[in-house]
Design a protein that fits this description.
This is Cytochrome aa3 subunit 2. The structure is a single chain. The chain is an alpha+beta fold. Helices cover about 20% and strands about 35% of the residues. It contains one helix and ten strands. The strands form two sheets. Strands 1, 2, 3, 5 and 8 form a five-stranded mixed sheet that branches. A hairpin with a 2-residue loop joins strand 1 and strand 2. Bound molecules: dinuclear copper ion.
């Protein structure tokens, strides 16, 4: 083998090893793995598992709300969400079937909601109005119909 070939081979192998060490260090030592595994749920038993047995909008404190939401082909439950402007709203979500998306137009809310996992996202709607909620993960033939609205008063 040519001398230069050997050098380049060694260099590329070395870079691979360095990257694996960095990623391994971040993932295991620093705990920088994806957070989605933290809260899991049996996707077959969403309807019987608290808090998803009672989807809805709940007042959790002074100016604090929690929306317990299930996503399924092709709807969001609850479908009629109303929260006061400026309140801290936490969406606690899971999917009952396939992967769905939870995107709220005009905000930076954009989450993936997967069966078996609990997704949480917190947001304050400062401007009153109607916010369009869209599923942005292709989930089947009715995907383009999967939408709802959040009313902020
Ligand atoms: Cu649900 Cu696309």
């Amino acid at each position: 083998m040519h001398r230069l070939e050997e050098i380049w081979l060694a260099l590329s192998a070395g870079i691979l090893v360095i990257f694996m060490v960095i990623v391994g260090y971040q993932g295991f030592a620093l705990g920088m793995g994806p957070p989605s595994n933290m809260d899991t749920i049996d996707p077959q038993k969403v309807d019987e598992t608290a808090p998803f047995d009672e989807p809805g909008v709940y007042k959790r404190g002074e100016n604090e709300y929690e929306v317990i939401m299930t996503l399924q082909a092709f709807s969001f439950n609850p479908g009629d969400i109303e929260v006061p402007a400026g309140a801290k709203v936490t969406f606690t979500m899971t999917s009952k079937d396939v992967t769905h998306g939870f995107q709220v137009a005009g905000t930076n809310i954009n989450a993936m909601v997967m069966p078996g996992h609990i997704q949480k996202i917190t947001h304050s709607f400062d401007e009153p109005g109607n916010y369009l909620v869209l599923c942005n993960e292709y989930c089947g033939t009715g995907h383009q119909l999967m939408s709802t609205e959040i009313t902020v008063k």
